[in-house]
Amino acid sequence: MTLAAIFLLMPSVYAEKILFIPHDDRPVACQQPADVVAQLGYEIISPPLEFLTQPDKLWPWFYENAPAVDAAVVASDALLYGGLIPSRSHEIPIETLHARVENFKTLREKNPNLNLYLFGSLMRTPYFGTPGDREEPDYYGQYGTQIFQLTGLLDKQEISKLSGAEKKYLAELEKAIPDEILDDWFARRAKNLSATKKLLDMTADGVINYFIIGRDDNAPLSQTHRENRQLLEYMKNIPKTKAQSQAGIDEYAMLLLTRAVNDLSGTLPFVNVQFNRGVGAKTVPSYSDEQIGNSIRNEILIAGAMFVPNPKRADFVLYVNTDPKGKTFEIHNSCPPQVLTKRQEKYFARNAKNFSAIVEDAVNQNLPVGVADIICANGADNFLMAQLRDKNLLFKLQSYGGWNTATNTSGFAIATGILARKMNRQSIDRLLATRYLDDWAYQANVRTQIADYLTKYPNSYQIFLNLGEQEAEVVPLENKFMQEFAKKNFPQWTNFTVSNPWHRMFECRIDFRN
Fold it and tell me: Which domains does the chain have, with CATH numbers?
């Protein structure tokens, strides 16, 4: 079944067509971005889901369908490696990767007028490894923390100086990690980096109209940051209007689909950004190597929009819920679940009260307001959401984001906020309901309830990562808890079901029944 068959909302026969190849079939990367654009009346042309992991089938499908569309938003990771996660553990020869890159030249020759928007990833460097995590090579579960620390020291060594203690620790790490593991890890990264540089060459030559390179799960000192310094030097003569390297990854499908819509409609939206009190724009969130203010400015450019300093001149105003001290809190994605102290609860409540008052004032001024809720990683701020609910603001916003990393959140909120001005209120509310169900209900609450339930099993965390035979008992519980949450907080949106398409607790799929 194609993605189009899943979520097209009966577009007109005269609707403009956008070809969309996501980097995998998770709802936030695949279903949800396409659903947003389909509600504008565009026809989304996407491949059969099983093709996303098979480049040798995906390329012929791309060649066949490209002549019939007005724009194409495609993931290079799917076309080169078979997806985002396979890009981290593949054994593909570099000659094969380069041959697949060359396919873009053939595509351009056959489709000289196609608007081609490409997004890909610079391989991530997670802080630690988790045994059984299928997103990294098996050895990362044992050696992940040491690999992260080693590459952070290598990165620092190249941009400043190591202390005597750091030099000693670097030598210890190099001895502790087997040579064959480091060889495998660095060799794959070198192949991927080589393919990315070739894609940049094609962007400079006009084969690709626009190329965004995402940096997922990294830090100011890491191998990802180290490679990005190389890339920035390599692409220094390519303007930002053609290529960017940016923290994040999962939000780029939504941002580039928004750029395609803006280009097809000939519009240049104006966007203003306001931050919470305190550190604000200078916050460096978890899983990022740059200040969130810089990330958001770049995301506005990716979406084909322009930042303006005056909110009253903006088509959309994004309000960003940051911690006053610039911290990111990790409280919504663990098994067993974490519990806030009374002191933390007071801190969150005070911050939420102040920030919600700022949002309320903006709404009362009839500004087109969206919220990027990034004080917590992997889920909404429950204290803020309760304030927005009690102030009757939930469905007076244009967009909301509170899922996963800070840049995932801000990118999705920016893109949907820009597109909201082209939608009726019913469509906007449906998109908001999706985010409240996913980011607030599921990620910040129900997932925690399920994590607590799973603690009755001795291997609860492994089940959290891979539900296995427990999925049959978890899914009915999820739906029960989600329905209870929706009835309490937004009872007009209870016509949905929840599932776990990747058979783990990290993400869910929301399907409305009508």
Answer: 3-147+178-265 (3.40.50), 270-512 (no CATH)
